[in-house]
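During the no-cost extension, the postdoctoral fellow (Dr. R.K.) reprocessed legacy sequence entries with the updated structure-token encoder. One reprocessed record is reproduced below for audit purposes.
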Amino acid sequence: MLLTLLLSLLLAGQAWAGKAEENDGKSVFLVATDQLRGSGFERTVVLMIHFGGRGGTTGLTINRPSDIPLKEAFPKIDRLRDSDEALYLGGPVGSQSVFVLLRTRQPTKGMMHLIKDIYFAPGHQILAQPIEGDSRAYAGYAGWAPGQLQAEIDRGDWRVIRRDPDIIFDRDTASLWQQLSKRWSGNWI
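Re-encoded structure tokens follow.
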């Protein structure tokens, strides 16, 4: 089941990434509104990996670092032994699974191109590879059944915005939600 889900994420994401590139190099983000206060998505920013279709919608919450350093989460991975980076909480679905976002000009097998020089890869094996550029690991992902996210957007739970994907690796993740909420122009996509 998990392998099927990962494969569908990769294949669906490729279609979504192509659409994003056609739209001037900006990524699509969901920014939680105050209507989600008290829920697991309160003050979250979600990078869309795949939007719509038979498989539903998937994304990664990019502004939720955990208290677990990568070196503790993956003690057997040599290149992480000196890392102070945190494992991020990508969403409530599949929290035992690991996904990685990377910014690199040298992609390797298993990396799915999203936009510009940013790639998505499932699995902790990618963390063991030498990576030229930024990377961030996520436990789990955010997922919605077909039509579910659109209903939440229509209800006003989310703002859908397009931004430069560089914010994915912003060091100040604590204020990312506030920054994007203030900068929202009111233009839906």
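The chain has five helices and ten strands. Confidence is low (pLDDT under 50) at residues 1-23. The remaining legacy entries will be reprocessed before the final report is submitted.
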